[in-house]
Amino acid sequence: MDIRIHSSWEKPLQSEFKKPYFKDLMTFVKHEYATQTCYPKIENIYNAFNWCSFNDVKVVIIGQDPYHGVGQANGLCFSVNEGMAHPPSLRNIFKELEHDLGKTYPISGNLEPWAKQGVLLLNATLTVRAGVAGSHQKQGWEVFTDQVIKTINDQKRNVIFLLWGGFAKEKAKLIDTSKHTIITSGHPSPLSANRGYWFGNKCFSQVNSQLEQVGASPIVWQLP
Q: Which CATH superfamily does the domain covering 7-214 fall into?
């Protein structure tokens, strides 16, 4: 069972892969996938990194867990496979995209086109057991993904971090705002959005404005 990460991330994270917690994590993940139904597919666990190379990272969006329903998760936070119904949070993301930039509501919920432009769609926990939300938390994934954030913080400049909701905002302590930009809002979940903490945040236009200020190309948020 081979779980590979894009080569551009191997050098920045090489010390992490050698640590005892990471080896224990891989033992746990391989056992879970061998004995349970888990998501995403094992070859898609590192899709956030495989679609967005380390050199290309311009924006980081932080989620919590993969979707745990059949056929949903594809390794990118908030994203679903082609042909899948849009979960509530993703629907609200797309509604804000419509309101903010006047874009057409997308048919596909697959966010790979964002990742290919330098948007790292990072879940704090990269795997989950089918039907059991949070089942792979506190096994080491959070230690690893916190280190990913720290590595981006230390080795890059002018990255924009979109922190949606309380969980993601906790990651602000890992980010040096003298080098990077943090844009916060409520979570796109219906509970948060219906209380007025999501809609109207204009995060997508804010990101592109920030990118243009540092001479970087804006993200084409419209999905094909």
A: Uracil-DNA glycosylase-like domain (3.40.470.10)
